[in-house]
Design goal:
The complex is a heterodimer of chains A (376) and B (264). Chain A is of the alpha/beta class and 376 residues long. In chain A, 72% of the residues lie in helices and 9% in strands. Chain A starts with 5 loop residues before the first strand and ends with a helix. Chain B has 264 residues and is α/β, with parallel strands linked by helices. Chain B folds into two domains: 182 residues, P-loop containing nucleotide triphosphate hydrolases (Rossmann fold, 3-Layer(aba) Sandwich), CATH 3.40.50.300; 65 residues, no CATH class. In chain B, the strands form two sheets. A six-stranded mixed sheet of chain B has the order 6-7-8-3-9-10. A four-stranded antiparallel sheet of chain B has the order 2-1-4-5, covered by helices on one side. In chain B, α3 runs parallel beside α5. Chain B is globular, with a radius of gyration of 19 Å. The chains are: A alpha/beta (376), B alpha/beta (264). At the A-B interface, α2, α3, α4 and α13 of A face α4 and α6 of B.
Chain lengths: 376, 264
């Protein structure tokens, strides 16, 4: 099936140079016959070149285009060119080649219209628009929450439970594993430093302090942003592409209330729980190092861990986790609603949802750090 | 209503596709059972039927995307339902498919969409590839649109661009899923004209799944009608034959756009 037989004979008769073609001419043997013919006709030294197609059994549009271009090149050099004995099929194939189409300059597409300066301007406008969109979406979300509070029956409880399962229960293994590994690493690294001054006893306090005050909420939030924030953006984005969101609107539903509220609520419920879970496994991870390398008993390790932790720290950690959760879910949903067309948009806004959520988590954490310092 | 008058082309030649005893089922749900038909070179074969009769399933089997429950699809003596990956790849280089949504890659320009199969399988130099892209866009009346992205095109233009991409490697058989679905009547007619022009100029065999009657009357050389109840082909012939002479009331009612009236 892939073998293409062809034969080309070159003959000079009187004032004409004959190119007699036989067999099949297609993309499969294009490079061979193109080379063979071009070599011979580059300087035909005859006022006329005649391509004889009488023995051609198959010709595809790529081969026809090649002969068309050869004809044009030769004519441009003042050579008279004729294509003879074309079958009806071959004539049909030549009929789809339009010389004006081949010479048509590309029309300007929207992407071509932007110069460098315009692109910078567009990018700046996009940043400003993103911020305005987020503020406007936050407003819409708050209104939707207030309406849901006013009329709790409208809350889609089964959706909330579904996302609690998705974002929370399904995330337990990875959150636990990462928490334990981080606890283990902090304990090991601090042990290496503290043993030099004989302060090994402070390792449990350091691990629990770092995890509960900072790392637990941040680490959990980043994991949830990667797992669930992206999923929310992709889900709503795909619904935008499929006009499902438009359908909701035309049926009289507020898409924010219908799609975003259950997701945000579910995430705000599960992230603080996941944070406690990550903290717990972090302490366990630290304990593995404490018991195996620091010669501490389990009881001593726990006592030392609890010494530094105050109720205020736990409460603020959970408040932070709740705020991070709201940011992740809101940004994920908002980015999903920004999708307009196609798979590429879904990918773009999903990535943007994760990046923006992580950025906002860090910004919020900085604000909390200063705020809690003064409250304390 | 005007019908195509000429006879089915290629009917005296060896069939390009032979479907033998094809059965498709999802679990216990039989879509169609033991169907037989042939596709002749150069013909436009339209597969019709009411929703759920298995038209799209049949198309997926013919293009090698879905294995049947039983039966064969022979292309040049090779059963594509049992072909190796290599054989299937060779078959796929000889067919083109236009999906209902056109399925253009949204991250690429039209030029890149059409260049994709050419660069992968034709091994041509970039200048030649560029010339072929221009030729293919010219064929579908989209000259100059090579740098446009699919998002910048209307539904009809996307379909035409999809045809240009499907035609990139000069396939022997072109498959269309719901050719003019979702298009306005003027664009649908333009698309029908393009199909006829391409078929006549290049002799490309076409298998079209549709239920747009106007389109069927205009472009079909031959029609196959699938039926949900009998799970098989209930009629085969030219559109005119099926409209006027079909013995089966389901066929007549489909082609006359009437409800089946049961005898009282």
């Amino acid at each position: 099936m892939d073998q293409e037989f062809h034969r080309i004979t070159f003959q000079r008769k009187e004032n004409s140079f004959y190119v007699i073609l036989a067999g099949r001419f297609s993309r499969k043997n294009f490079n061979i016959f193109n080379e063979e013919i071009k070599k011979e006709i580059s300087s035909p030294q005859a006022p006329s070149v005649i391509f004889d197609f009488s023995e051609v059994t198959y010709l595809d549009s790529i081969a026809a285009l090649t002969f068309f271009q050869m004809q044009k090149d030769l004519a441009g050099r003042g050579v008279n060119v004729q294509l003879i004995h074309l079958s009806d099929e071959a004539k049909g194939i030549f009929s789809v080649i339009h010389s004006d189409a081949l010479e048509q300059r590309p029309l300007k597409s929207l992407a071509d219209d932007e110069g460098f300066i315009q692109k910078i301007g567009q990018a700046s406008l996009t940043v400003a628009r993103d911020f305005a969109d987020f503020i406007s979406f936050t407003g819409a979300l708050l209104v939707a929450f207030l309406q849901t509070l006013k009329n709790p029956k409208t809350l889609r409880k089964q959706d909330v439970l579904f996302y609690v399962q998705r974002a929370g229960v399904d995330g337990l293994p990875i959150v636990g594993l990462i928490g334990a590994l981080v606890g283990l690493i902090i304990a090991f690294m601090s042990f290496l430093q503290l043993k030099m001054i004989g302060a090994n006893i402070y390792v449990p306090a350091l691990v629990s302090f770092a995890l509960i005050k900072e790392l637990g909420p941040i680490m959990t939030a980043i994991l949830v942003a990667g797992r669930s924030g992206s999923a929310y953006a992709a889900e709503i984005g795909t619904m935008m592409v499929n006009e499902e969101v438009d359908a909701l609107q035309t049926m009289g539903f507020d898409p924010v209330r219908f799609l975003a509220v259950p997701k945000v609520l579910a995430t705000v419920i599960v992230v603080p729980i996941l944070t406690i879970y990550a903290d717990f496994f972090g302490v366990i991870g630290g304990m593995i190092i404490g018991v195996t390398s620091l010669d501490l008993t389990v009881q001593t390790y726990i006592t030392q861990s609890l010494k530094t932790i105050k109720l205020f720290d736990v409460v603020t950690s959970l408040i932070k986790a709740g705020v991070f959760a709201a940011l992740i879910a809101a940004i994920g949903c908002q980015k999903g609603f920004e999708v307009r067309e196609g798979a590429q948009d879904v990918g773009k806004f999903t990535t943007s949802a994760v990046v923006n959520a992580i950025f906002m988590i860090v910004v919020a954490d900085s604000i909390f750090a200063i705020m809690f310092y003064y409250i304390k | 209503m005007t019908f195509k008058e000429y006879a089915v082309p290629g009917a005296n030649k060896e069939p390009i596709l032979i479907v033998e005893g094809l059965t498709a089922r999802f679990g216990d749900n039989v879509v169609f059972e033991n169907i037989h038909f042939k596709v002749y070179p150069g013909e436009i074969l339209v597969v019709v039927g009411t929703s759920g009769c298995g038209k799209s399933t049949l198309l997926k089997i013919l293009i090698g995307l879905q294995p049947p429950f039983a039966g064969k699809v022979l292309y040049q003596g090779m059963d594509i339902t049992r072909a190796t990956e290599k054989e299937l790849l060779s078959y796929r280089q000889n067919i083109g498919v236009l999906f209902q949504s056109s399925a253009l890659f949204s991250s690429m320009t039209l030029k890149e969409n059409i260049a994709l199969p050419l660069e992968e399988y034709a091994g041509l130099d970039p200048t030649m590839t560029e010339a072929i892209i221009k030729m293919k866009l010219g064929m579908v009346n989209l000259s100059g649109y090579e740098n446009h992205s699919p998002a910048e095109l209307s539904g009809g233009m996307k379909k035409r661009a999809g045809i240009a991409r499907a035609m990139a490697l000069d396939p022997q058989v072109l498959f269309f899923d719901e050719l003019s679905a979702g298009l306005d009547p003027v664009t649908a007619v333009e698309l029908d004209d393009l199909i006829i022009k391409t078929n006549e100029a290049l002799g490309t065999t076409m298998v079209i799944v549709t239920h747009e009657l106007e389109s069927i009357y205009k472009i079909a050389h031959r029609v196959l009608m699938l039926d949900k109840e009998t799970k098989g082909i209930i009629a085969e012939g030219t559109p005119q034959e099926l409209k006027n002479n079909a013995a089966d009331p389901r066929v007549r009612s489909f082609f006359r756009r009437q409800k089946i009236v049961s005898p009282t």
